[in-house]
């Protein structure tokens, strides 16, 4: 009796009866969505009359097939290849291979995890008081998020690992930061972002003071404009007052002349 083979078969049966005991944290093979998944069938060239069965989560996906029968996957030498796998192909697989006499040639289980490509992350910066908060945002499905890990680079050198966000003091920091999001089979890096919330240089001038100068200049212009309006208004009022006084004087002189003419 093949004791080793019997123990392997019993272990395989245990896993297939309790598939929830395994998850992608114990993946034995990680596959990128769209790639091919290969199962090794024998340690020798596969014979025409060898039979094999492959189960996924205790459900048969390939039944008692030999290398000449049509069915799921392509037999290549001593292996079966499933092409262009997708996320639904993740699971616990059991492989059993027998020769023409029913002797077990190979039995094993394998936990397969299929992952999607990681989209390009985006660095979001929030400025508050004298601190800059960094956050690495990446749009992935909820069931894929737990497999994502993060790393940060500062001026091209690794800065932090396994953190989604962090904060720094703003100060004079003009460093460039990028974040990388990755799963076990794929990674993607954000565009570089400068940590500059409070002080930015424009033509070598600190924009903090540059803005102050602009505001001061604008305020001075407004003040000058108001002053001109006041001066013009006062001048106009003075002219009107002088004209009114002259009119009154002329009217009094005219009345005086008329009185002299009557008395004569």
From TrEMBL:
InterPro entries: CD2/SLAM_rcpt, Ig-like_dom, Ig-like_dom_sf, Ig-like_fold
Keywords, in A-Z order: Glycoprotein, Membrane, Signal, Transmembrane, Transmembrane helix
Protein origin, superkingdom: Eukaryota
Lineage of the organism: Eukaryota, Metazoa, Chordata, Craniata, Vertebrata
Compartments (UniProt record): Membrane
Transmembrane stretches, start-end: 214-238
PROSITE patterns assigned to the protein according to its UniProt record, in alphabetical order: IG_LIKE
UniProt domain Ig-like: residue ranges: 119-190
Species for this entry: Ictalurus punctatus
Main localization (coarse): membrane
Record-level GO cellular component terms: membrane
Signal peptide span: 1-24
Family annotation (Pfam families): Ig_2 (PF13895)
Protein name: Uncharacterized protein LOC108274089 isoform X1
């Amino acid at each position: 009796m093949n004791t080793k083979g019997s123990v392997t078969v019993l272990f395989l049966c245990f896993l297939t009866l309790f598939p929830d005991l395994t998850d992608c944290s114990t993946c034995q093979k990680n596959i990128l969505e769209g790639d091919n998944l290969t199962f090794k069938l024998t340690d020798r060239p596969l014979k025409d009359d060898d039979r094999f069965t492959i189960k996924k989560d205790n459900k048969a996906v390939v039944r008692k097939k030999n290398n000449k029968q049509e069915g799921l996957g392509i037999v290549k030498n001593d292996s079966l290849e499933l092409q262009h796998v997708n996320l639904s192909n993740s699971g616990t697989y059991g492989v059993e291979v027998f020769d023409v006499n029913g002797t077990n040639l190979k039995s094993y289980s394998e936990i397969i995890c299929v992952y999607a490509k990681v989209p390009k992350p985006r660095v979001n910066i929030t400025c508050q008081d004298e601190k800059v908060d960094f956050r690495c945002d990446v749009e992935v499905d909820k069931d894929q998020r737990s497999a994502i890990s993060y790393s940060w680079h500062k001026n091209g050198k690794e800065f932090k690992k396994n953190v989604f966000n962090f904060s720094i003091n703003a100060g004079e920091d003009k460093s460039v930061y990028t974040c990388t999001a990755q799963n076990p089979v794929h990674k993607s890096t954000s565009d570089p972002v400068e940590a500059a919330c409070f002080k930015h240089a424009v033509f070598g001038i600190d924009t903090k003071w540059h803005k102050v100068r602009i505001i001061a200049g604008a305020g001075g212009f407004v003040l000058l404009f108001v002053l001109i309006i006041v001066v013009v208004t006062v001048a106009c009022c003075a002219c009107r007052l002088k004209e009114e006084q002259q009119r009154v004087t002329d009217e009094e002189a005219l009345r005086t002349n008329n009185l002299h003419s009557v008395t004569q």
